[in-house]
Amino acid sequence: MWAITLSEYGGPENMTWAQVPDPEPAPGEVVLDVVSSAVNRADLLQVQGNYPVPPGASEILGLECAGRIAALGEGVTGWSVGDEVCALLAGGGYATKVAVPAPQLLPVPEGVSLEEAGGLPEVACTVWSNVFLEGRLAEGETFLVQGGSSGIGTHAIQVAKAFGARVAATAGHADRLQFCRDLGADIVIDYHDDIAEALKKATDGHGADVILDNMGAKGLTNNLSALARDGRLMIIGMQGGVKAELNIGALLAKRGHISAMGLRGRPVEGPHSKAEVGAGVAGNVWRLFADGRVRPVVFERFAMSDAAEAHRRLDAGGVTGKLLLVNS
Question: pTM higher than 0.90 for the full model?
């Protein structure tokens, strides 16, 4: 098969489209012929050497994909060769084939093309696990997503709105703020401003019951200020650094909850597993695509072999939604 390989850590210049051995399905796995994958911020970190591959996972980039089942491993039931699926991966998506544990497969949502589905598993599972399972966002609560025009943000806005939350989103430019509003955000805030003060003004001092944050250290103080009492801060990224000072007194006064959760290192099955998250997505989120309340947001498509250029595009900024990598 063909795949994107890394000659060494550094930048996109080290990414090469090359032939590598075909994967074989282990017991409980399937092999997919990959139609599409998508670029995630974590992929850029992996290329830089700052996001280690979990033990036993593929060294090939790519945390999600869509495709057709080409082979079934021993013990796999409920799926057949030829089925069109999408999948959450621990690695391996930037390729023409990938082996994936069967519990990480998802059906393609009704109303979504197979190609578009390659950009859904990572965002859908991240939002469902953080905002709804751990963050417990409820109807009528206020939800703030930092980076609302990102792949995660565009999905989070739509799903939170569909579940009856009041949605606030941040972005750094007027056109991206309008894009968030067009997706359903009730409140939009320029992240160059004081986000906490702007949110409090827009919510009569209440703040956010749940915050989904991709900045990490840089946003910690302002996020804590923006939290409502009994609020939940869900940290999913570290674009703004990994170390910050936490005012525990302020956290106690808010009765606040801070959680930092990823997907890649979760077990395949069991409590808090990829299978559990995927089942929640399939049972609760996929129907929102079928009735049109949520849609995929694809900014640009690249040939899989041009993944390095897609990385440069994401790193340059200004992307609204997902960048897809497509096998011809």
Answer: yes
